[in-house]
């Protein structure tokens, strides 16, 4: 019986994927020019296939721990567009993360609104169940907490900020809703 929903964001929460800034390293190490659309980086398969990804071990440990408990229902929910399902699934499989469900955002929908809508649907389908999320975007995490209060559901949001990424990537600071200077 499902007693708890565990929802993991994908990029920079469960999996440390690359940033636009990493393209220079790719070009230097391979001697090849980046062919994909830099302006639409997050929606390109190349952002997931040509650049390195690795688990965020502190969150990955929680995923593995929760997966052992049959009362948990594990969901990976990403703001990546649905056209990247194969690439996201490949990365999850590569690191042996097998969620019960994988949700990718419909391309025309706002990331925050899409995730809130999914949470609302989960709360209606699994009435009374505890929901715990892992999210790297501070601005989103705060809105999820407020949304849980509005729905009158148990929604715990774990804010996942990685100090080493904050130092290295101005794009990550912006992504997390933090000042870039």
Features:
single chain, 181 residues, alpha/beta, two-stranded antiparallel ribbon, 7 strands, 41% helix
Secondary structure layout plus pairing:
Layout: E1 4-8, E2 15-16, H1 23-30, H2 46-49, E3 54-55, H3 57-67, E4 72-81, H4 85-94, E5 101-105, H5 111-125, E6 130-135, H6 138-151, E7 155-159, H7 163-168, H8 170-175
Parallel strand pairs: 1-4, 1-6, 4-5, 6-7
Antiparallel strand pairs: 2-3
Summed over residues and divided by their number, the pLDDT gives a mean of 92
The unreliable regions are: none
**Structural class determined from secondary elements:** alpha/beta
Q: Reading side by side through the largest sheet, how are the strands ordered?
A: 5-4-1-6-7
Strand content: 15-25%
- Rg value: 17 Å
**Care to count the β-strands?**
7
Major sheet, described briefly?
5 strands, parallel
In DSSP terms (H or I, runs of 4 or more residues), the helix count works out at 8
Task: Summarize the helix and strand pattern as letters.
Answer: EEHHEHEHEHEHEHH
Helical proportion, percent range: 40-55%
Gap between N and C termini, in Å?
A: 48 Å
* Molecular shape: globular
Can you tell me about this structure?
The protein is α/β, with parallel strands linked by helices and 181 residues long. The chain is built from 8 helices and 7 strands, in the order E-E-H-H-E-H-E-H-E-H-E-H-E-H-H. Strands 5-4-1-6-7 form a 5-stranded parallel beta sheet, with helices on both faces. Helix 4 links the parallel strand 4 (72-81) and strand 5. 29% of the residues are buried.
């Amino acid at each position: 019986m499902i007693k708890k929903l565990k929802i993991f964001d994908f990029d920079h929460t469960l999996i440390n994927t690359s940033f636009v800034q990493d393209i220079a390293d790719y070009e230097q190490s391979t001697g090849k020019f980046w062919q994909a659309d830099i302006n639409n980086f997050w929606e390109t398969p190349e952002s997931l296939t040509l650049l390195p990804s690795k688990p965020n071990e502190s969150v990955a440990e929680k995923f593995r721990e929760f997966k052992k408990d049959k009362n948990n229902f594990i969901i990976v929910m990403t703001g990546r567009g649905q056209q990247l399902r194969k690439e996201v699934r490949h990365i999850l499989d590569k690191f042996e993360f097998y969620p019960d469900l994988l949700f990718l955002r419909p391309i025309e929908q706002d990331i925050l609104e899409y995730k809130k809508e999914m949470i609302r649907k989960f709360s209606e389908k699994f009435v009374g169940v505890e929901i715990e999320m892992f999210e790297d975007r501070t601005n989103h995490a705060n809105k999820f907490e407020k949304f849980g209060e509005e729905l009158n559901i148990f929604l715990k949001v774990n804010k996942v900020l990685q100090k080493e990424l904050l130092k290295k990537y101005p794009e990550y600071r912006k992504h997390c809703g933090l000042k870039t200077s």
